[in-house]
Amino acid sequence: MLLIIFFIIFAYLLGSFSSAVWIGKWLYGIDVRQFGSMNAGATNTLRILGWKAGIPVLLLDALKGWLAVKLAQWFMPASFTEIHREFFLIACGIAVVLGHVFPLYTGLKGGKGVATLLGVGLALLIYPTLGAILIFIISMIFSRIVSLSSILAGISFPFFVIFLPFQPRPHWPFIILSILVALFIPFTHRSNIQRLIKGEEKKLNVAKKFHSED
Q1: Helix 19-28 and helix 42-49: axis angle, to 10°?
Q2: Using the 8-state DSSP alphabet, how is residue 155 labeled?
Q3: 127 Cβ neighbours under 8 A, 6+ residues apart
Q4: 19, 60 in Cβ contact below 8 A?
Q5: pTM, 2 dp
Q6: Burial of 48 (0-12, 13-18, 19+ CB in 10 A)
Q7: How many CA atoms lie within 13 A of 182 on its CB side?
Q8: Span 25-44, mean pLDDT?
Q9: Are 74 and 80 contacting, i.e. CB atoms less than 8 angstroms apart?
Q10: With CB atoms 3.0 to 4.6 Å apart as the test, which of 20, 48, 58, 108 could cross-link to 102 if both were Cys?
Q11: What is the pLDDT of residue 209?
C-alpha cells in the first residue's frame, strides 16, 4: 500500500513539472500563461515562443506521462494480480495528468493535459493511441485547429480501444479509462468549444519570435 501511495504521489509531482512555464521563464524570461490563451501547454508555447520552445514542451509533457506509467510498471510488486496491475497503472496515469492540469509548483495553473495523456496512452495502450494520433493529424491537415483536432482524437480513443482488431482484447478498466479520456479532453477544452461554435477559434500560427498578442 505504501508503494502504491508513493508512486501515485510521485506521478502527480512529476506531472506538476510544467515544462511550458519553466522553459518560458528560464530561456525566454516569459511566463506563457500571461499571453495568448494563457495556457501552460505546448500549443500556447508554439504560438508565443515558436517551434524551438514548443516542440521541447510537447515532448517533455508526453515524456512525463509515459515515464510515470513505465516507472510504476517497472517497480510494480510481482504479487499484484493482473487487475491490480491495471488499476495501479491507470491510477498513476490519472495522477500525472492531474499534476499537469493542476501543477503544485506553479499555482495549480497548468495545461489541458493532451500531451501528457498522449504519453500515458503510449505507455498503456499504444495501438489505440496511435489511432487517435492519426485522427489528430488528419484533422490538423484539414482544419489547422489544435483544439478541434485534440477533441476529435480524444473522442475517437475509446473506439480504437474497443474495436481496433490487431491488439489484445482490452479489459474493462482500460475501456473505462478510454471513455474518461473521451470526456476529459472536451471538458478541459470547454472555452475552445464555445469559440468553435461561434466560429472564433483560431488556427495554429507558430510564432517566429515572441509577441504579446495571441
Answers
A1: 20
A2: H
A3: 160, 164, 166, 167
A4: yes
A5: 0.91
A6: buried
A7: 16
A8: 92
A9: no
A10: 108
A11: 62
Q: Are 86 and 173 in contact (CB under 8 A)?
A: yes
SS3 45: helix
- First CA to last CA across the chain, in angstroms? 46
Grid coordinates representing 38?
494563457
Q: Which amino acid is at 101?
A: V
Residue-wise pLDDT tens digits, 116-161: 999 999 999 999 999 999 999 999 999 999 999 999 999 999 999 9
Question: What average pLDDT score do residues 5-15 get?
Answer: 97
How far apart, in whole angstroms, are the C-alpha atoms of residue 139 and residue 103? Answer: 29
What number of other Cβ atoms are within 10 A of residue 172's Cβ?
9
What value, to the nearest 5°, has the Cα angle with vertex 46 and ends 44 and 49? Answer: 100
Q: Is 41 exposed, middle or buried (0-12, 13-18, 19+ CB in 10 A)?
A: buried
> Does residue 182 carry a pLDDT above 80?
yes
How far is the CA of 80 from the CAs of 5, 85, 125, in angstroms?
15, 6, 20
Q: What is the pLDDT of residue 78?
A: 85
3-state secondary structure string, 49-106? HCHHHHHHHHHHHHHHHHHHHHHHHHCCCCCCCHHHHHHHHHHHHHHHHHHHHCCCCC
Cell representation of residue 176:
473505462
Closest CA to 160 of 137, 193, 127, 201: 127
Q: From residue 199, give the alpha-carbon distance in Å to each of 139, 145, 186, 194.
A: 16, 11, 17, 9
**Residue 210's pLDDT is what?**
62
Residue 41 is classified by DSSP as S
